[in-house]
Fold each of these.
Amino acid sequence: MKTAPKRWLGIAAFVVTSIAVSSPAVAQPLPNPVEVLARFAHEPGITAVQSAALEYAGLADPDLDAWSARARWSNAIPRLQAQMAWLDQRDVQLRYRETFSTDDEGVIVADPNQSNLADDARFRTLFSLRASLDLGGLVYDRSEPIIAREVRSRFGQRDDVLRRVTELYFARRGKQAIRHLTPIANWERHLELELEIQAQTAQLDALTGGWFVRQLARPKTGAP
């Protein structure tokens, strides 16, 4: 009868141990992606970064489609041509005349000398002004093929800039989120992520002409 309590105690210990081993560990709640990204809400948004990049690249003109219309309407303005000419002509003549005659006694007599000076100056200035209109240009301007090529080229450049900026922006934001979720004890991974973030920051700053880093240097407002 004295061995029964020991047997029951052994069975109870086995049951408790089995429950402890078979019970799964309490799972840690997964981080909320919205809350993680909200930590960087103080940084410039993608739209502002794209606008700054287009402005720096000289591609922010929103009126590319209106270039042809403006070229046509320019023919409604008359084209003026002005000319000016002048004539400066001056004729100077010096004439010398001496007359000899004889008197009744046959003596040769010289008349007083005559010197004539003639100064003929003529000045004339001509002006002309002509205005012309190319009414056919209101329908089709000869520069439209050139404008069309330039517009296509600029739209292609805009797409390249927007694609590059968008890829860099969200790649950088992804690295920021991963760095935030990486345990601080893994310092090598933290260092690797920090270098990648700085490299992408430098590229975005170059594409915006220094605007991006200036915005990051502003005091943080609204950061969690």
Amino acid sequence: MKKPAVWIAAAAVAIALSALLWRTVISPPPYIEITPLSYSDYASWSVIPKEQPAPVWTDGWAVDVFLVNEASGLKAHSGKGLDKREQRARLQGRLLEDGLSVVGPVYAPMFRTDAIGDDLSRAFESYLKQHNRGRAFIIASDTALPPSLLAFLDTEPDLNERFGGFYRLSPAKGSVALVETGDATAKPLTSYCGAHLVDDGTCVVDVGTARQGGYKVLAENSGLGAAPVTPFVDWLKANAAPMAEPLGDLEEVEIVDIRKPGDTDERRTKKKKKKRN
């Protein structure tokens, strides 16, 4: 009597598994369209400082980290799936921030996986305009950087002077390519660094990572050290002039007609008439 019940239960499980396999592997639903992120909104960043760091014109040279984290890429079949991706991006970003904070404040934008070039270039531009305030910076990444982001380092001489190089986050030295493979027009990373970084061998620094609870963290022997950017800051102090504080928009000035007591418009009109006569 028990065998038919077992067969029925087994058949029901098989049908459920077949339906799940069909929905998730064989014929999954299409990816949902994600609205372009607005990087003036802090919710579009997986990591961003709670308080804005001091600008270079008040506290002198310091270094930020602009983090491109593969886990911050957003792509999902449903709204619920997208929420899970965002939550994972924020947790992964904070874990990497723990290790990179020895460099300085960390900024890690989320981005649409299918529009990584557009999103990261907009995020970087937003970082420069709203958050950087003349500070030096490095770019840390565990994935290939789009040309649209690297182009900023090519076109802004002042920006290039403040750029402290790339941190390549990977479990094994050189195992991650920071430029898109197969692109014949891609320039070497050294072309984006100042000569002093290339000469010192610090244009591209390999930073070791490890897995912890399914997430990526900096390894104990990451090679980063306790004060990794001190030589770069020393170079900036000796060779680069900090940005001056922007004046901001000029306010409209109201011109006031200052007159002596009794000097009215009526009296001035009478004087003009007498001169004509």
Amino acid sequence: MNELYGVDPEIIKSVSDLRSILNYFGPYTGRYLVNYPVDSPDWMARLNANLANLSDLQIARAKRLLSQANTDLRMVRKDGLPWRVTRDWLENAEPLMNAGILDGLIAKESRPPAIHDFDDFEISTTSEERIIGCGEEYARVSEILLFYSQEVALVDPYMDPVKSKYESVLERLLKKAAQRRTKKKFIFWARASAVFSNGETDQLYADLERQLNKLLKKSGLEPGSSIEMNLVEDKGGINTMHGRYLLSRKGGIRFDQGFQRLSVGIKTDVSPIGKKTHDELLEIYFDGSHDMKIIRHICANLM
């Protein structure tokens, strides 16, 4: 998850090459193409120069592909990476991979296991993995979506932010999102009967509201950011809340055991959500197309 790849722009000779490369990346695969270098001329300028001999029609198609790739979050920018003009692309990129900044490279030559020749590049469809069930790891695999999304939904029927095993994970996720200095909106979805297993009281709702405000204030998020929580009743409905997801308009991640801190050393499965499932989940949790009854809506705002 969140694997970052560098691609030598000189290996892309055609619109077909560009399309093939871009198909490997984005939230639906859990891998991202890093726009490297960012120094002038940057990766995009180098690619455009490499495609300059194509017809006007092909160049226009390439530009549309690149524009859509930025919209779809197939490509990400990572500032501050060193670049030496006396070295070629691979000589510059390989130290970044060796330092763990990049997870793999697609270049003019192959040096297994992490440097791949474009013509022989093969990789699994998605980058799902098993991770230790702690806040640091949940934040690591969610980093790109948290960083680039303005609105994020966390769906977990049993998520109770007051409980320490959820609080510690939510703190990490919010702080990771705060690393990009823009205001953000988080929406938590949970089942009311699971959160309030011993019955609902005004005091429990007040405690939950205080906890949301506490999480928001500790997060480092920008003023104007907010956390909302929808406590729902889904029994007997079509849209029964079962899966645990981190969702945004850009993509989503499935968390097998939700957003709880697990016992030391216990692992859990995480995986990217495919486009079809993502579209369906957006309709439910972003567009309101569901039959769940919202028992209580709680909101905390950072002024």
Amino acid sequence: MKKYIFILLIFFVSKFSFGQLSEYDSLSVVAGIKFSEKQYVQAGELYKKISNIKNKEKNELLFAQCLYRTRNFEKAFSITEKLRKNNPQAGLYLAAKCKAGLSVPKESCKYLAEYLKTLNKLYESQIKSDTVFRKIENSSVWVELWKKNMYSSYERKLETALYEISRNNPEEAYDILNIIIQENGKKHKALYMRAEFHFSKKNYKFAEEDFTKALKLRKFEKYYQGRAETYIKLQKYKKAKSDLEELLKTDNFNLDYKYKLSLVDFNLQNYKTALSEINFLIKFCPENDTYRFLKGKIYFEMQDYMPALKEFNKCVKSPVQKADYFEALADTYAETQSYEYADKNYAMALDLKPNSGKLYYKKANILYLAGNKSQACYCWQKAVSYKYYKASDKIEIHCEK
């Protein structure tokens, strides 16, 4: 039954593409969603279909990834082997994993040795932590492979820094990265890792500087991604938008980038643009509460309260309840002077976030407007007890001492 429904989905997406999207773009987005949801059989069928339209190597490798994740190692390997006829480096690491999954250590190590000659390979510790290689880690060919020096001293230093981060010793990692950068300021990978360190410590200004330095050396996607997220934290929304638009040039239907672009436009008060972007996402992910919540916030800022209520009401029915959802719903009811519903939803938000002075303050304001002065004073006092001192003025004016 599920397979029948999925075949109908493919037909529907192919026949009636979303908005102005082509069949390829529509199917590509749905495939990405299915992959992220770990529905690898369905994702694989879609990647196989679109590989016949365009971007053959990229989509066939994604199809192979889906097969690998469903433990169809033989078929996944055969796809990588076919691709290597045109591109000798295509899918080398995946081929090594497939042969390890099939318990063929000699073949696995052959492909892994070729992969280790590539420029942007994983570090030794990352490869060895891949569980599929446990099947062959006691073989002589595996042991012999790692006796060879496959990494430069620079790569070894970076790996040591990565190891210190994994052991929750970020300061040790930071010292290593500083030494590397002092020796050679053009080491973009070290700059990127240091930027990530600064970001994790909320030192966003330093993170911005290092991401920018790394990008001057290499225009890698993850460098743009890191800087865009840093710009958002710094509220430099115009710069964040520029980086997100750069990312979307090469991955034009990446849902994460699309969402962040909508969020940035919302903060730039480009509400109509933000609404158009979030509606695009909801067409593909109608049950996504994060998208619905942002859509509700956009309508709220546009003072279009009825559609905002519709979106927030959907959010509060989510299996994962969040105080922010109930607070936004209450705020919207407050704007429509529906004080009873506003009070009820502030109470729900407080159940999830009981130490919020701000929520007590908002609840008190609604109670006062509804004519319940004694309860309003109680909530203003609770707000002050949770260090929301804005409530003090209300107590001074409206409450008996």
